[in-house]
Amino acid sequence: MKTFTQHHDIHFERLGEEQEVAVIRLTRGAKRNALNDRLILALRDLFENMPEGVRSAVIAGEGPHFCAGLDLSELKERDAGQGLHHSRMWHAALERVQYGPVPVIAALQGAVVGGGLELASACHIRVADASAFYALPEGSRGIFVGGGGAVRIPKLIGAARMTDMMLTGRVYNAQDGERIGLAQYLVPEGAAFDKALELAVRVAQNAPLTNYALMHALPRIAEQPADQGLFTEAMMAAIAQSAPEAKTRLNDFLEGRAAKVRKQD
Ligand code: 1HE
Predict the structure, then answer these.
(1) Does the CB atom of residue 86 touch ligand 1 within 6 A?
(2) What pLDDT was estimated at residue 224?
(3) In the structure, how many helices (H) and strands (E) does the chain have?
(4) Cβ(148)–Cβ(121) under 8 Å?
(5) Does residue 134 line the site of ligand 1, with CB under 6 A?
(6) 157 alpha carbon to ligand 1 midpoint, in Å?
């Protein structure tokens, strides 16, 4: 059985044997899934109210493009104060994606640009198909990133590459995007959603505390000075390993019931 709900320009569905994967699809294909305020707020609300039993999520876009970024038709007359609050609204929404209840996998195709790349950067895993391309047209539109891109994108590709993208309007294709770290997976055209779903099903099988540690502890540890990071790591390791689920899983391996690590083709 599948369950779906239609929010404003978002289709929400639960997939997987136990409906453990939330699939969130942007459904403004006619506008290349450009993110207007209503859509950003709907995303925030969805992540704040993720139903019980969801263990991982996929974000995808309808049509040939993942997302054309900020809806430029809404960027008319905003004074500095309104601009500040608008950016903070994006921050709050994408913060709920990154530091929300479950790991999120983005399925990317076509344009992943501007705010679309900022949304993808807030996800935990990015799977791109061969049609994907990445750009930060803010630079040529006379504006700046405002959806957390200045914080998240340099962590993926470094400040130098982001500076180049914004100064020169450079567009990375799917292959180069994967090479520089914009996406972790590159798949043939049309295959991003299926791969993202396959990964989401796999991620949903992890112990919830392990996923929690990867989402909430790892990025914070990575920001800490080494000495503090090591201390936080030890705390998180102790908590994770003391969960009953960890003990069961370790025993399963020791008693030959769990999968071994195998070389992949
Ligand atoms: C839009 C938007 C949009 C398309 N806001 N309406 N982002 C950009 O600067 C990217 C702008 N978009 C594009 O460069 C192209 O549209 C695409 C490469 C994404 C797709 O091209 P294409 O040829 O498939 O579509 P199209 O014909 O350009 O667009 C189809 C419709 O979507 C058209 O509307 P229509 O009523 O004439 O059919 C477009 O106007 C509309 N559309 N993109 C509004 N972005 C938190 S700060 C973040 C800051 C930013 O994200 S700035 C970067 C914004």
Answers:
(1) no
(2) 98
(3) 12, 10
(4) yes
(5) no
(6) 24
Q: Which residues contact 3 (CB under 8 A, 6 or more apart)?
A: 13, 14, 19
Strand order, beta sheet including 185-187: 3-7, 10-15, 21-26, 56-61, 104-108, 125-129, 185-187
pLDDT in tens, 114-143: 999 999 999 999 999 999 999 999 988 889
Domain ranges of the chain: 3-204, 208-254
pLDDT value of residue 45: 95
Compute, in angstroms, the gap from residue 193 CA to the centroid of ligand 1. 22
Which two structure tokens, joined as six digits, stand for 206? 């992890």
Q: How far is the CA of 134 from the centre of ligand 1 (A)?
A: 13
Phi, psi of 158 (to 5 degrees): 90, 150
pLDDT along the chain (265 residues), means of 10: 69 96 98 97 96 98 98 86 96 98 98 98 98 95 95 98 97 98 98 98 96 97 98 96 87 88 86
Q: Is there an atom of ligand 1 within 6 Å of 146 CB?
A: yes
Catalytic positions, please? Answer: 118, 138
Nearest CA to ligand 1 atom 42: 31
For the segment(s) 208-254, the CATH number from 3.40.30.10, 3.40.50.2020, 1.10.12.10, 1.25.40.10 is 1.10.12.10
pTM score above 0.85:
yes
Per CATH, which fold does 3-204 belong to?
A: 2-enoyl-CoA Hydratase; Chain A, domain 1 (3.90.226)
Atom index in ligand 1 nearest the CA of residue 138 equals 52
Residue nearest to atom 18 of ligand 1 (CA): 111
Give nearest CA residue, ligand 1 atom 30: 31
